[in-house]
Amino acid sequence: MDSCRFGGASLERTTVAGTLSNQGPSAPSDPLAVRSAAHILHVTCTLKGSQSRTLRLAGTFFTELAKAAPSTRVTTLDLFATPPPFDTPTLVALTKSIDRAPLSQDEQALLRKWEPWVDLLIVADMLVFTTPLWNYHAPPHLKAFIDIVTLPGKSFRYTHDGPTGVLDGKRAILFQTRGAWGPDHLGEWLKDCLWLLGGAGLDVVKADKQDLGSPDEHESEMVRAVDAARALARRSAAVLREQRS
C-alpha cells in the first residue's frame, strides 16, 4: 500500500501487482483487529486521475473530514488499477454460488481469491464510492466489483427475516459526476446492492451537466456539489465518532 494524506487523515492506497489470472487483491493484515481510529474504504472508478471532476468532490470531502476527524484512516481501492474479474470462469463460479450449486475446487479457488475485498468491507466503518455516470449507470468496473463482493455465505446470508450482511448497518456515500442529464440509475442500484450486504443507506453528492452550457455554468454546478461534500464530511465525522464511542 502507498500512503498519502488529505490534511490530517491518512490515505492508504490499495493496489495489486500481477494479473487477474494468477493473483487476487491483497488482504488486510488483520481484518478483524480492534482499531482505535475510524476507517473508511474509498472505492474509486475513474480514468481521469488528477483531471477527474468526481475525484475533486471526493478530495473536498476527505480534506474537510480530516479537520473534523483527523485520526480517520482511508483505504483506497482503485478499480482501474486493480480491476475486478470479467472472465467467464469466475462469473460462472459466482452464478453457481448464488444458485447454491456445487462448485468444483477450481471454482471455489476463483471466488476465494476475491474474498480479501469482502474483508475490506468488514473492517470499514463507512464506504465511499467515487465514480462518473456512464450511459446512465455504473461503469463496468464498479458493477463487477459489486458482483464479486456479493458472495453468499461470505458477505451476506439469506434468513427468514430477509438478507443479513457484513456491512451491519454501515452507511455509504456516492460521489458522482456526469457530462449531461437524463436518467440516472446508479444511486438507486448501488443503494439496493448495499442493502443486500447489510448497508443502512446511501448519501449521494453529484454534479450534473459538466459538458453542457458555459464554463461558468459548469463551475457553478461543481461549487454547489463541493459545498454539499463539505457539509456531508462534517456530518460523517459525527457519525464516525458516534460509531466509535
Structure summarized in a few sentences:
This protein has 245 residues and is α/β, with parallel strands linked by helices. The chain has helices at residues 53-68, 88-98, 105-112, 115-123, 140-149, 186-196, 215-244, and strands at residues 2-6, 9-14, 39-44, 73-78, 126-132, 156-159, 162-165, 171-177, 201-207. Mean pLDDT is 84; it is low at 1-24 and 29-34.
What would your notes on this structure say?
It is a single chain. With 245 residues, the chain is an alpha/beta fold. The protein has a single domain, classed as 3-Layer(aba) Sandwich (Rossmann fold), CATH 3.40.50.360. It has seven helices and nine strands, in the order E-E-E-H-E-H-H-H-E-H-E-E-E-H-E-H. A seven-stranded mixed sheet has the order 1-2-4-3-5-8-9, sandwiched between helices. Strands 6-7 form a two-stranded antiparallel ribbon. Helix 2 crosses helix 3. The N terminus is likely disordered.
